[in-house]
Amino acid sequence: MRSDFGSYLEADGATLLRFAYVLTGDHHLAEDLVQEALVQVHRRWARIDEPRAYVRKAILRHYLSWRRRRSSDEIPARDTALHAEAADHADRVVDRDALWNALATLPRQQRAVLTLRFYEDLDDTAIAELIGCSAHTVRGHASRGLARLRDSAALLHSVRGES
Amino acid sequence: MTDLDRELRATMAHRASFAPGADGLMTAVLERGRRQRRRRVIAAVLALVLAGGAGAAFVVHPEENRTLQVTDGSAPWPAPAPIRPGRLPDGFDEPRVQYLRPGTWAFDAYRTSPRAWLSVDVMTREPELRRGPGERRTVEVDGADATLYWVPPHAFGDREYGTEPPESTGPFAELTYRREPGQWVRIAASNDEGGPMGLTEADLIGIAENLTDEKQPVADIVRMTLPPGTEVGHVQDGGSRATLVLVDAGAPDEPVSPADRPGTLHAGPTGARLTVLLTRSNDPELTRFNTTTATSARQRYEDLTAPVELPPGGKLFRDGPSVWYLHPLPGHDRMTIAIQVAATDPLATADTLRPIAQSVRSGPDARFPR
């Protein structure tokens, strides 16, 4: 059983860490989530037929429901960061760093939905099944998340226009 | 597809290349599993020790059906933290108090730019000083000596700072001192992405010198009746997931552990007797109990992902060295109460755990989904 689990880790470990990192934006948290999910899988290896699906779901559930940090749930909006970075990247409406930072301001449900849609290329039905809600709710999270990112982009754009 | 959609795809694909590597993942997973098993064994051993001692009258016949002798009223809640932080450096969110273990409270705060985690831990016992590749020296806080441990910004993977967090991941600072007799403080800060954290030695000393003797209550998230001889040893408020750890009454105070770092999960108290988890009914920690009747791979997978199904009075599950009693959380259709206890503990019977579970209610500060 150990060798099977080892082979699975060798094949999927890096993929899971990339997914967790895009989901969380945090090296340490990504490692923490992946390791915690894999400990569960290892313990029940003989009973799990689709470890990849199980681990991905476990990572999501832990990310959404656990208080991984010891304090507040959400990372506050970072208008000051957008201002600061605006001067460094004058050519693009939304540069990747700013967009990445703006993602960090989203509530976790919204970020999870956008990660599954744009990084994992899943449709709303599959996302709903993974997160444990309806497709309608998924669309709501995606819509609000994208609107918030557009607001950040607009702010960045206006800052650059003024500078 | 909009420009924003394309940018998001590109950004996520680009950022994925910065993910931590999988080298050492196997070792980390096995070590983590070992640590979890070790904690369960310690809890079981402590329970056995207790069973041989003062609780003899209570535990002589663990197989016997008994009704729990519940105490009147709600559980005594942990005492408030004895201090609170004053003004923090610009950009940090409002810190909230957490009860880490008997005699130890923590205030955590986060800042997005420059990214930094910050924690102010206060405890009744002297904490262990960190050993590592950072610089350690003595500084002055309110006229008293304090130990400052400092790791400057550096690239992730810099050999000088090894492979163990917190030093390996980026800048880290820790200021430890005795604030008054019987009161120790540890202020820690980090940027686990490696860039500057925007905090100086003077900032940390400023935080220390602005602590005030104003008590801060622990969020009142769970109400329940405690089994005789236990008390609340840990409270973790996780929004839709709350954890309460009961320890034996009179358990000694424990200082914060070096493994407790800002921005990470912390270890609970040693000697945990019961863990009371309030979580969503589709939490994988619980849905694994759905697998008992599955006869096909597909059904097993569906069982693993469906909300755990319980009779109104709850149900007991055996899980290796642990026993779990799961019960619906009144007033919250999507939440379940899960009580974990060592299988060797005299409390580990359905008749004992059922009334404990039935006494659990969400507290006024809880934010569980309904």
UniProtKB/TrEMBL annotation, chain A:
Top-rank taxon: Bacteria
Gene3D superfamilies the record matches: 1.10.1740.10, Winged helix-like DNA-binding domain superfamily/Winged helix DNA-binding domain (1.10.10.10)
InterPro entries: RNA_pol_sigma-70-like, RNA_pol_sigma-70_dom, RNA_pol_sigma-E_actinobac, RNA_pol_sigma70_r2, RNA_pol_sigma70_r4_t2, RNA_pol_sigma_r2, RNA_pol_sigma_r3/r4-like, WH-like_DNA-bd_sf
UniProt domain RNA polymerase sigma factor 70 region 4 type: residue ranges: 97-149
Record domain RNA polymerase sigma-70 region: where: 15-71
Keyword Transcription regulation tagged: yes
A Pfam family assignment: Sigma70_r2
Keywords: DNA-binding, Sigma factor, Transcription, Transcription regulation
Matches recorded under PANTHER family: ECF RNA POLYMERASE SIGMA FACTOR SIGM (PTHR43133:SF50), RNA POLYMERASE ECF-TYPE SIGMA FACTO (PTHR43133)
Recorded family membership: Belongs to the sigma-70 factor family. ECF subfamily.
Name this polypeptide is given: SigE family RNA polymerase sigma factor
Organism listed in the record: Cryptosporangium japonicum
From TrEMBL, chain B:
Keywords (A to Z) from UniProt: Membrane, Transmembrane, Transmembrane helix
TM region(s), chain numbering: 41-60
Highest taxon listed in the record's lineage: Bacteria
Name assigned to this protein: Uncharacterized protein
Organism listed in the record: Cryptosporangium japonicum
